[in-house]
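quick one before i forget lol
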Amino acid sequence: MSHQTNKSLRPGKHFWALSLAVCLALSLTLAPPAAPAAQSDRVFEPLRDLLLQQGLAQAEVERLLAAPQLKFEDALMARMLSVPESRLNYGQFLGRQALQSARRFMDKHAATLKQTQRRTGVPPAVVVAILTVESRLGSYTGKHRVLNMLASQAVLDTPAAQERLARRWPAKRRHQLQEEGTQQRLTRRARWARQELAALLRLAQKQKVSPWQYRGSLAGALGMAQFMPSSALAYGVDGDADGVLNLDRPADAIHSVANYLKLHGWRPGISHRAQMRVILAYNRSDPYARTVLELARRLS
């Protein structure tokens, strides 16, 4: 799920619970050749220690952390973290153009949406509203390397990462980085990101692909539904039954969103307050939840 400002802060699996199967998968899918540890970016040193503690072979850890693709995304981190939630323009999703696009999508995928409603009880308008706000129905899913985005966030509670983040932070608000509230926020995000990075590796192992292939948002969210890796593992549905979970495909995204909402308490006939609670499980933002439900109302 996306946005997140804290959309990203979705529940993950047990902290760095990587199995031996993941270790094997990494040896098969981490394509970049091993490089000397000296070539690794030292900002990622904490990830080396954590991975080693979980039993990964040192050679595989070094290969991952010394890969030329791995980059601390300081500029992108500052851009994402320095924008307050209140500044996000959710009103854009209630305009005429957004409504027209949503209605066209509903017409085009009416059969899938109805099938999903029969299975989960979630109305098509609610599913389409979420996909609209999350990614403009797949138009804006993000092109960033998810592994980089999660690894960068996973070390935000370290002095080395914060020093580099400060260089990119808006100058007029740079003092905020040292405030207790900001420090707590960075600590929470780092803990969360380490969970999601572990989930990404499990997802890559499950799908038998390289973890480098995943592209997504600044937060590390995937596809039309903007699921975090842990949510893809827990709630993703192969809606078109082709044997692959691909959240860039409408059928998979539709079924996955509805499945998530059902498993978080959506039932036919629930009150508006109960609907808000379910949507807030998807993205912990009141403006987000209000926008989704208002858009769904207009689409109904």
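fyi Strands lie at 144-145, 215-216.
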